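Lecture 7 notes: from sequence to structure.

We start with a single chain of 201 residues. Read the sequence below before looking at the structure.
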Amino acid sequence: WKNRPDLNVKVYDLIIEIVRDIPRTCGICFTGGEPMEYIQSLSWLLNKLQIHEYAKLSVETAGVVQYVNNAPVFPDQKDVFDLLDNDVFLSISPKLSSALGNRFTYEGFSKIIKFWDSAIDSSYKAQFKFVVSTQDDLENIKRFFSENKVNHYLFLQLENSVVEHRDYEPNALLLKNCIDAVRIIENSRLTVQQHKIIGLQ
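Now the structure, written as tokens:
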């Protein structure tokens, strides 16, 4: 479904069939893979869903199309504007070193946050969410937010295995350090991977 208008209609019909019985007051969230790979088709679909009076629409994204030579590749600026033209809420979750391994760079991580913070001028239309698995993840977050101010709320989301095994000493320390971090990072909150706890796929 890579920005193919001929496939969009088929996918749209399928999705409308799936969501037909969902009350219009319920939310619909588009998530990974990576929605930014299909940003044109996604914008088209969001617009059609709004025509059908689905109002609570959101997108969960790492904020990039892909990585090339460890550098983030962003969607085209026009496509970003078209996406934001819809009444959609974005949860932008840049991947950290625990997810990217050697592909992670602090510079690339910083670019993702700055790109989306400047692209979305309304604080209520987006949030940043960081899945924290290791102390290294947390240190990169703390470093960025000690050096920069953003216009959106941010959530430190503890990776589920940390929560499940919180009695393990390194995990207990990471939990404590995350709590300490949200006390000093402006507009930040601590949360968990609720979808994993309740068993959603």
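The mean pLDDT is 88. Keep this in mind for problem set 3.
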